[in-house]
Structure formats: C-alpha cells, structure tokens
Amino acid sequence: MAREYRIDRPPAVNVSRLDEELRAAFGGGAVYLGMALDPGGVRVVLDDAATEADEATARSVTLAHDHTRLSAGQAQEAARAARVAAARAQVNAADLAGIVADVGNAATIPARRCARRSRAWRGCWAASRKAEGYTPSVE
Amino acid sequence: MAWTAIPDKSTGDLMDETWYDAHFKANMEYLLGGRPQASVCRTGASDYTTTSASWLNVDAANLALTLAIASGRAFVIATFRLESDNTAGSEAEVDIAADGARAGGAHGLVRLPQNQQEWATIMALFPALSPGNRTFRLQYRNVTGGAMATIKNDGFPITLLGWEV
User: Which residues of A touch B51 (CB under 8 A)?
Assistant: First the structure.
C-alpha cells in the first residue's frame, strides 16, 4: 500500500530530475515509490511503512528542487543534441559548392570513369593470364 | 428521486394509491429518467505526470464521479491522451477505480509502450457494488518506477462519465 503526500512548492518542476533526486535521497530503497505532478502541485508517493523522517526527507528534497537542472537522461540527450549540432555546423562550413561543381563537370567525370575501368580491366586480364600459367605482359 | 425497494405482497394485501405512487410510479420514473449519471470533461493548463509504479489517483478532486447506486452496478467510460516517456522499460497504464478498487487487472485497462502517445478510451462495468454513494476515479502509473506516464491535459480534454445500470 502507498500513501501520498502533497507538497506545496512553486509549480515549475522538472519531473525527471525531481524523481531522480528523491530516489537518490531514499537510497533507491522500497520507501519511495514515485511522484506525481498535477495542477494542484507535487504529490510524493511513499510506502505505508514510511516514517515521519521519510516524509520530512521527501518534503525537504521537493522544496529544494531546482527545475532548471537536468536529470542524467536529459543531460545525456542534451550532449547528444550538441554533438549533432556541431557535426551539422561542420558540414555547413565545408566547401560543398566546390564539390558539387566538380561532380557536375561532365567533361572530366566520364574520362575519369574510363580510366578507372581501363585499369580494372587490365588488372583482371593479367590475373587471369597468370592463373592460366602465362606470364603477364607488361603494358 | 430514488429507488424504493418493492416489498413482497401477499394475497389480500391492499395496493392503494400510496403504495402505487411510491412503489410503481416513483420507481418507473426512476428507471426512465432518474437513474444516477454524471460526467466530467476537464481541459486544464498543465498535464498530469507520474513516476510512480504504484497506482494513484490522477486527480482525486477534479477527475471523480460520485453516483448514488441502488442496483449495485455501474458503467464508467474515460477518454484521454496518454503518453509514455522514452526511459527503458517505460509502460504507461491507466485504470478506473470505484472507491479505490480498480476494475482492471494487474496492468489496468490500457497499457502504452515506451515512447508513444495515443488517444485512449477505456470502460469498465462494476457489477457488484454495495448500494449507496460510490466514487469513481481515474488512476495511473508507470510499470517502471522513475519512468514517466503522462495524461495530457494542457489543451487536451479528459472525459469521465458513468451511470448506474
């Protein structure tokens, strides 16, 4: 069974962070069961076996809560978002226009392709001749 | 208007106007349009969120219906938008309770997996209530303590309605 304690505090609450703080304060034991945030404020849910000291702990942690601080999960997510933003900035800073211009150069690309195919063909031919016992000619 | 229990009659008992008015007319009026029913439709400025793995009332004061039950049965429906957060193992669950006794099983009447948000409609028949005033409330939890279950109410309506059957 559980008991709820309503604790009056300013309405700005970071639920994830406050839950983390309460779990830490109760040492992850069986006394603290969770919390709820509704238009009436914060409700802390404690096991029936909770003592007055437990209630006082819940109250002091809830009143000391700073909603601007992030929970571990939120901090992780913020760090990931920062990495994505940095990578995006790096891509934006690169000379993509120059690369696109190179790719779009119809005069040079077919020539490069032919050269690559030619080299590949010569390699295959030499390998097959060698496999058949011939000494590959040098071109 | 209330239901009046009808006594057994014996041969020769008089069924006069008083009896007729109390046991026939009044009860027929009760059955036609006097059975208890109530509804709540609430749209607030903030949501309801819990990290509790134990069931608790969403809002004991504002999301509650009280019916004066005579038959011993009631039917209750609730609609709302439910969200479970992205914490590993997060599963949001909602149920309807009559005087604290939930209608659903271990996992309530609806269960929403991790990182989802859906409109939900749940309903429950309470077939064996004691006659008298019975209060029905919405309850919720997240099966994983620390993960969040949210019933949206910031611009989203929550509806709860019930009636005697």
Answer: 15-16, 19, 34-36
Query: Which token pair is A122?
Result: 């010569």
Contacts of A43 in chain B (CB under 8 A): 56
Domains, chain B: 37-164 (2.60.120.760)
B66: how many CB neighbours lie within 10 A of its CB? 14
B50 touches chain A (CB under 8 A): yes
Q: Say what the ipTM of the complex is.
A: 0.78
* E strand intervals along chain B: 37-42, 48-50, 56-57, 64-69, 74-84, 92-98, 101-102, 110-112, 116-126, 132-142, 149-152, 158-164
Taking only the tens of pLDDT, chain A with its 139 residues reads 788 999 988 778 999 999 999 999 999 778 999 999 998 889 999 999 999 999 999 999 999 999 999 998 889 889 999 999 998 888 887 777 766 666 666 566 666 666 666 666 777 667 766 776 776 555 4
Q: How many helices (H) and strands (E) does chain B have?
A: 2, 12
SS3 letters for chain A?
CEEEEEECCCCCCCHHHHHHHHHHHCCCCCCEEEEEEECCEEEEEEECCCCHHHHHHHHHHHHHCCCCCCCHHHHHHHHHHHHHHHHHHHHHHCCHHHHHHHHCCCCCHHHHHHHHHHHHHHHHHHHHHHHCCCCCCCC
Cα–Cα distance for residue pair B5/A118, rounded to 1 Å: 102
